[in-house]
Amino acid sequence: MKASRTLTVFAVCLLALTASFAQSGRRIKTQPTPAPIVVSEEGYSESRPYKPVKIYPPNYKRPGGDEEERKKPVSDYETTDDPDVIKIEATLVTIPISVYDRQGLYIAGIRQEEVKIFEDGKEQEIAYFNLSDEPVTVALLLDTSPSTEFRIDDIRAAAKAFVRELNPEDSVLVAEFDGDVQVLTEVTRDRNKIFKAIDEADFGGGTALYDAVEFALTKRLNKIEGRKAIVLFTDGVDTVSRGADYGENLIDAEESEVVIFPIYYNTFLDNRMGGGGVMTSPFPIPSGGILNPQPRGTRPEDYALGKQYLEDLAAYTGGRVFQAGTSRFGLQSTFEAIAQELKRQYQVGYYPAEEGKPGDRKRIKVRVYRPDLIVRARDSYIVD
Which terminal CB of the chain, N or C, has fewer other CB atoms within 10 Å? Predict the structure, then answer.
């Protein structure tokens, strides 16, 4: 009887103790229920499809010159059968996204629930979303043609500042281009090798810009996995390329997974005023004493075309054009801004609901459910 009464008292105490633990919540380890994320369908920002200005190289119809042209499969255009050319595989599409406010300030803390991605107008299910934290491989392409002769020291200093801003695990290839393309160092993480390569950059004759971009896209970066980018310092004016042209570069860029950041430096007035570049070179005079037409790369329309070319490269890959500063400090800040952007891109991955046929061009739109923002991403890719 006494034992029974004791057992009853013990049971009552145990129940009371359990109830006390449950009510206090201090001793029972439980996972808090996350607050629901409410996304307003009313206020959002979207990436915009790129509509290039119709400036074309002589005798060349540029692929993607307007909306109707860009809807055509890439196979409708004449392209080389270069086995090194790489296309995005439609089984998995990864899109780098940059988000800024109207003053150009980076927007942190974007969540997957705030993002939607559309392919050919149809919403896609996002497979993963995160802030880019994996290493990036950068091809640093430096224009060392005569038009940049008087800025070579500034270019070297700014390029080094850019490399210092990268993460230690990031890799860099350094190449210069004048009349030819010269690799100063292959892809490496060794900062001493990179800085030594930058110091070796020196000016020469001609500007093989298209060849340099084709080389980086289809001979180096296509062999590398992971995040990839090209930082291209140039005035955009090509004079001597033999293996590639404007349109081929755009096709290669759209087929790649590389983001291109051109740094545009307008050398037209500098060279006109005697900076030592191509604009000061005497025009050939035939025996009859009549001036020949201005040579390639010296006319105002060549510079207009060069600027448009750089804008196309950036837009087709989700990058943007930076305007080089007029001083060493301004140029250095420009390079550093690109390094910071590479650290702040969001990565979105999805498996297309409809894969399409090889050569099809798929249109992409990214929507972020926050108002009054600038959302930048590539607006298309090509099915492999």
Answer: N
